[in-house]
Design goal:
- By secondary structure, the protein is α+β, with helices and mostly antiparallel strands.
- The protein has two domains: 3-136, Fructose-1,6-Bisphosphatase, subunit A, domain 1 (Fructose-1,6-Bisphosphatase, Chain A, domain 1), CATH 3.30.540.10; 145-261, 3-Layer(aba) Sandwich (D-Maltodextrin-Binding Protein, domain 2).
- The protein is 36% helix and 27% strand.
- The protein has eight helices and 14 strands.
- A seven-stranded mixed sheet has the order 3-4-5-6-7-8-9, sandwiched between helices. Strands 11-10-12-14-13 form a five-stranded mixed sheet, with helices on both faces. Strands 1-2 form a two-stranded antiparallel sheet.
- The radius of gyration is 17 Å and the shape is globular.
- The protein starts with a helix and ends with a helix.
- Bound molecules: adenosine-2'-monophosphate and calcium ion.
- Calcium ion (CA) binds next to strand 4.
Length: 265
């Protein structure tokens, strides 16, 4: 598969988002649900991605955060978050990212996370590795959790697992070098693949927040599963809502924690 056109489509839309940021102000913001914000930038970026990506791969379907849905069972489908980290974007704080994954049948086969604060393009192709602007990502010998940083997201709209979440957080305070909460799950996962973070866990995520990041982590030599390490195919994994990820060593440390603390749905 020639994927360079896919990467260039993501780059073009990301660069458009960066240029819109210069003119952006609070009047452009709408509220979708509790603490869930959106703007014309998210909506137009999704339209641009759908047009470009489906024309590069005719017959492909789409699942997009801003409502694009035309899923083709058993076919090729794009899972699109045109702007992951909208709250950061609105407040003019990095990171925020374009996140795009391609699924073939029930398998993730290609992914891009274009982080716009530092303008870094992360890509991965199933069985062919993960890259950041052409540099190979390899976390197979990454540090254990106690010598690393953990990324997470704080609950912001769904508070049912708050005690468990706080317990997991306390264990990370004690069992790692520190915890970071940056507000873009796609970027958190890309940064696990890049070895900047050793671990990541978050509850209550949508497919478009995690699909691209999961393939990036896996292709860099790391692992990404639900909180319990259950064997799920990619179709079910991106829909399960909770993700634990890390390099092989830190994943082992973190999955022990999340599977112990959280309760199976
Ligand atoms: P979004 O910006 O694409 O909606 C995990 O924290 C994910 O939750 C983020 O990647 C973000 O994706 C989404 N999210 C939506 N609203 C949020 C908020 N108020 N605070 C943090 N994350 C939010
Ligand atoms: Ca979004």
């Amino acid at each position: 598969m020639n994927t360079s056109g896919f990467t260039e489509a993501v780059r073009a839309v990301g660069d458009w988002i960066r240029s819109e940021r210069r003119e952006f102000n609070a009047n452009h913001v709408e509220t979708k649900a509790l603490n869930s914000l959106v703007s014309y930038v998210d909506q137009q970026a999704e339209q641009m991605l759908i047009e470009r990506l489906t024309s590069l791969l005719p017959g492909s379907g789409v699942l997009g955060e801003e409502g694009g849905e035309s899923w083709i069972d058993g076919g090729f489908n794009w899972i699109i978050d045109p702007l992951d980290g909208t709250t950061n974007f609105i407040h003019d704080l990095p990171p925020y990212a374009v996140s795009v994954a391609l699924m073939q049948g029930r398998d993730l086969v290609w992914a891009a996370v274009y982080e716009l604060g530092q303008a870094r393009m992360f890509t991965a192709e199933r069985g062919r590795g993960a890259f950041c602007d052409g540099r190979v990502l390899d976390v197979r010998h990454g540090a254990p959790l106690r010598d690393g940083l953990v990324a997470t997201g704080f609950p912001y709209h769904e508070f049912s697992q708050m005690p468990q979440y706080l317990e997991a957080l306390q264990a990370c305070f004690r069992g790692s070098r520190g915890v970071r909460r940056f507000g873009s799950a796609a970027t958190d996962l890309a940064w696990v693949a890049d070895g900047r973070f050793q671990g990541f866990f978050e509850h209550g995520l949508a497919p478009w927040d995690v699909a691209a990041g999961i393939l990036l982590v896996r292709e860099s030599g790391g692992l990404a599963t639900n909180f319990f390490g259950t064997e799920l195919d990619d179709y079910d994994l991106v829909r399960c809502g909770s993700i634990t990820a890390g390099n092989p060593q830190s994943y082992r440390d973190l999955i022990q924690l999340t599977s112990d603390v959280f309760t199976q749905p």
